[in-house]
Amino acid sequence: MKLNKIYSAILLSTLPLSTVQAAGLDRSGQSISAFLQPGNYAEAGISVLDPTVKGSSTVAGLQGEKISDMGEDYYFPSAAIKVQATDKISLGLIYDQPFGADAKYSSIAGSFGNGIEGTSVEVDTHNITALIGYQPTENWNFYAGPVWQTVEADIKLRGAAYKALSGYNIELEKEEAFGWLAGFAYQIPEIALKASVTYRSEIKHDAKSKETSTLYAPAGTLLPITVDLRNINSDVDAVTPQSVNIDLQTGIAQNTLAFANLRWVHWDNFAVSPELLSHPVINQNLIDYSDDQYSATVGLGHKFSSKWSGSASVGYDSGAGNPVTTLGPTEGYWNVGLGAQYSPAENYFIQAGVKYFWLGDAKAKRGTDIVGDFEDNHALGYGMKIGYRF
Question: Which structural domain, as residue segments, surrounds residue 113?
Answer without folding.
Answer: 5-389
